Every structure is written in C-alpha cells, then in structure tokens.
Amino acid sequence: MEKEVLFKQIILVTDGESNGKGDPMESAKIVSEAGITISTIGIINRDSSEMARYEIEQIARIGKGVWEITELDKLQQTMQMVTQKSIYQTIQTAVNKELKSIIDTEINDLKPDSREKILGLMDNLSDSINLKCIILLDTSKSMVSKIDIAKKSILSLLNILNSREGKSEIAVLSFPYMRGENYNLTCDFTEDINILKRSLENIKISGNTPTAEALYGAFRILEGKEIEEDLEEGCLIL
Amino acid sequence: MEKNDIIKGKWNKNIYWIENFIEKGGIGYIYKVVDDKERVFVLKASKDLMSLTKEYKILKEFSYLSAIPRVYELDDGYIQGEENHFIIMEYIKGESLKKYLLRTISIKDILSVAIIIGEILKEIYSKGYIYWDVKLENILIDKKNMMIKIIDFGGVSKIGQSIKEYTPTYNMHCWRDRPHYDDKSLTFSINMIIISLLYKKEYNPLTNSIEDILYRIKDSNLASNIKKVLINGMIGNYDIREYTGRLKDIIREGKFEENKHCRNWIDTFFWGSIGIFLIFIFFTFNK
Fold first, then answer.
1. Domain locations in chain A?
2. In chain A, what residues touch B181 (CB-CB under 8 Å)?
3. Whole-number Å distance between alpha carbons of B202 and A35
4. Partners of residue B56 in chain A, C-beta under 8 Å
5. Interval B64-78: pLDDT, tens
6. Nearest to A163 among B57, B162, B206 (CB)
7. From A154, which residue of chain B is nearest by alpha-carbon distance?
8. What ipTM does this complex have?
9. CA distances from B213 to A89, B133, B251 (A)
10. Domain B6-90 carries which CATH code?
11. Of B56, B75, B206, the CB nearest to A149
C-alpha cells in the first residue's frame, strides 16, 4: 500500500483575546505535541488590546505554525497564505534536519542553483500531500459585522485549495455555540463546496471567546476519528 | 533602505547601490538600483525563498518573450541588517494599468490590451504553466517603446498544481462555486481586466456577486458581440485560444457600441408616439 503523507492544521481566526476558561497557550502546547500545526489569524486593528496580539502570536509560536494580522477584506488571501506557508515551513524544517544530518548544512547555506532543485522537490511535495485543515472560527458577539465576509472567505479558500494535487479537506468549528456550549462542529471535513456552503448557513453569533476549550475541541475532532484510520492506512504525520 | 545604501551578493559578489524604494510587493520589497557600471536594475528582495526562486526560474525559462522583464541573477544579501534573498531584473519604465482606472481609455484600446495579455498568457500556458496573479498592477504599459509587460512571476504554477498567489477580483475561484482550474480561469481573469477598465472599478467578490456584473454588461450600450464575449468569458465558456480569437474578431469588425439614441424598437415607439401626440395637440389648438 502506498504511504500517504497527511498534514494536519488548525487555523484559529479571531478578532480578540480569549476570555473563557483555561489558558489557550496550554491547550496549544498539548495539541502541538500531537503533531498538529496551529496557525493563527487576527482580524484586529490598532484599537485591539495588546493581549489579543500577544495571544495570536504565542499560540502560533507554540503550535509551530504561522501567524498573521489582517484586515477583514484580506481574510481569504491570508488564510490561503497561512496554509501555504505553514506547509512549506513544516517541509523546510524536515528537509533542513535531513540536510544537517547528511552534509551538515541548511538550505539557506546552499548556492542558489543547487537549492533550486531541492526547492522544486519541496514545492512538488507541498502540493501533493493531503491536507486536513480545521478552521476555528470566532463567532463571539464582536464578530457580528464580520461573519458574512468570513463565511465567503472560507468558501473561496476551499476553492483555492482544491487546485492542489493532493486532497484538501476543510472543517469548520465555530466557537462559542448557543446555550453556553463552548464550540460546535459547523461542518465536518469535506472537499465539497456545496456541503460547506450549506453548513456555514447555520452559524450563530453569541457570547464570549473560549479559545482554550475550542482548541481542545478541534484537537478531538482531528484526532478522535483518525487514530484508527492512521493505523490502517499507514499515514505518516509530518 | 535609503539612497546609496549598498547590497552585496553573497555568492556572485556583485554590488548594487540603492537609487530609490519602488514599492512593497506581495512577498517583499522592490528597489531601483545601479551597479558599478552605472547600469540601472530592479532589485526584488524577499525572505520567501520558494517564491523568489520560482520567479527567477520562470523568468529565465521565458526569457525569449519580450513581454516579461529580463532577469540577471539570484543571490542572497543583507538588507537592513537581515538576511534576504534577491533577484536582479530589468528596470522597466512604465505605468501600471491601475493608473488607467482614472483615465479615459477607448473600448478598442482596452480590447487590444486584453488580446496582447491573452497572447502572452497563452504562450506561458502552452509551456505548462499558469500565471495566476493577473491584476492591473502587474501589467505595465511602456509608452515610449510601445510595449506591454507583465511582471511578478512568483505566483506562476505548473498546470495541475495549486494556486499560490492571487487577487480575488481577478480570480474565478473567489466568484464561482464551480471554478475551472485550467485556461478558462485565465480567460476569466483577462475578462475582469476588461471589466475593470470599462467601468473604472475593481469589483470585489466579497461585496458583489457575479450577477451584478452580468447585469451591468447586459444593460450597457456595448455592441452585442462584445456583450456576448464578456458574458461567456465570465461564465467560463471559452478557453484562452477561443477567447483571444473572439476579441480579434471584434476589433476586425470595428463595432464597439450600439447607437445610443435608438437602442431598440421600444425607444422608437416611445418617441414616435410622443410625436403623434404633439401633432395632435398642435392641430387641436390651431382650430
């Protein structure tokens, strides 16, 4: 059986700081140790608190992902860029580790024409690996005016990711959910834009921002269903 | 970086002096520089090794096309104390098409520009690549030499590989649920360039729907064959070869607008009946 390479990522999209129970940095650490990359996108501006900015940066740092601050209308490009970058970053880390052990050097230390070939290979690899990406979408009260554009952005993201050679699946977990629940799996992993579109219609806005719990939720969804699959298919987690 | 700051290549050892900062691009910074023989170049610096290396490779591969900037070298160097990668390219004196959003430009000129861009992208496509990041800023008009140049090749992908850099307005995937991943999507992008220049406005898929644009085309006084091409290009009915062919047909026919005064029989009927009414009044009061 052919070995498949799977890249698992959580993208946290938020417009403020966590104010639920628990420490999101703690959750990020546990999720990251399981081999899942966490990237973060902050739709924040100058008026946003220092804490929000700090959290967005720290969670991505701990999650070995990429973080970006963006304006709302650039959200979809930012999501695509963050996904692309974090795949590259992960591959590059792996390649650098190999190079280090074979010839005691890193890709940046190679001459431009020698690294051209390696970069070509990395580019092909980044395109052919399978991708499971769960978007952790902040649906707290402050997101009211932003949610429609966020939904459209997620739809376009799937269309763009579908241009990859490898399989790209997106899931959406919104947090918080109604009646005091911390999060809700709005859409399970899918490649189908119509399923995603229909699911996104069910998003409700309410409450505060329980980031820590939501990260655990995404972790459970990514891992829970997959542990057996991994053993059967011999998946390799980067 | 300021004027006369120096960038020295780590590998090829060439030295460049900064003339001025040009702009911040998607992946890095662009400067006008001179070398020790007073030759002027563009230096594009970035930390994105992947994108920059790819741009260099593509520009080399297509160096036989006069419509893209010549590329000279790829090297590493320190910029503002940080290690960066950079490429050295031909300096092009030209204005981007974005400037033409504020100017009048005839329909014939718009279509001619679209044909030229179409031919360039068709050539790149025929060699196995898709230029995804079509936008007004990436198309330069060099009036002095009467040339059109396309810049920014970091977002070019092999056919069948993923889209890396794009702009929502010109990207079919941001407008439609079922997009195309081949040259039909190039057709869509060029079509949107025409629409932006015609209506002096860059439509945004986050706030507009494709129907808004289709309605505007249908309701305009463009010649019916132009309407047909624009609408079909939008829907994704043409590959790039057919599309440029249709545009050339329009230029050959030379009809760009319908007559504004008498758009259809309803107008004729309307003015006719007002005329009869006036004649009736005239005779009534002259008795």
1. 5-237
2. 162-163
3. 42
4. 112, 116
5. 999 999 999 999 999
6. B162
7. B174
8. 0.86
9. 39, 21, 23
10. 3.30.200.20
11. B206
